[in-house]
Design a protein that fits this description.
This protein is mainly alpha-helical. It is built from six helices and two strands, in the order ααααβαβα. Helices cover 52% and strands 4% of the residues. Helix 2 packs antiparallel against helix 4 and helix 4 crosses helix 5.
Length: 142
């Protein structure tokens, strides 16, 4: 699904794909790049940084800008899916589950407040996967 016309080139060969803008990999890489960290700076360390940032910190604006851009792209993609399929619940897995408390409420607000849905609603049922980032490996074992 394209979310940015003539955007970044994706691994699939197209440009502007949802994955290039709204995956957790993209979010974490964008944060690392903007803050000057390499790929060895873990997602756990990024989460701690986001949770503990204060308005007076020099990186506060940078972190919030990256976070807001990520939420906007994720909201566009999810709103497209909601408008097409009208699901009762959206489940998000992967490493998003670890960032739930710093991203999920803002994501819901973005979709509702920007009036992105064809069928208006006051609340969205978006939940994180119960098995967290381990669902794939648990499924493979079973």
């Amino acid at each position: 699904m394209v979310v940015e016309k003539d955007g970044l080139e994706c691994n699939c060969g197209r440009k502007g794909c949802f994955e290039k803008y709204a995956s957790m990999k993209a979010f974490k890489n964008n944060l690392r790049k903007a803050l000057g960290y390499d790929e060895n700076f873990s997602g756990k360390e990024l989460l701690a940084l986001i949770k503990n940032i204060k308005k007076e910190d020099e990186n506060y604006k940078i972190i919030n800008k990256i976070k807001q851009e990520y939420i906007e792209y994720l909201a566009i993609g999810l709103a497209n899916l909601i408008n097409i399929f009208e699901p009762e619940v959206i489940g998000i897995g992967g490493s998003f589950v670890y960032f739930e408390d710093v991203l999920l409420d803002d994501l819901k607000k973005e979709i509702i407040s920007k009036n992105m849905l064809f069928n208006k609603r006051k609340e969205l049922n978006i939940q994180t996967a119960v098995l967290g980032n381990e669902a794939g490996i648990i499924g493979a074992v079973l």
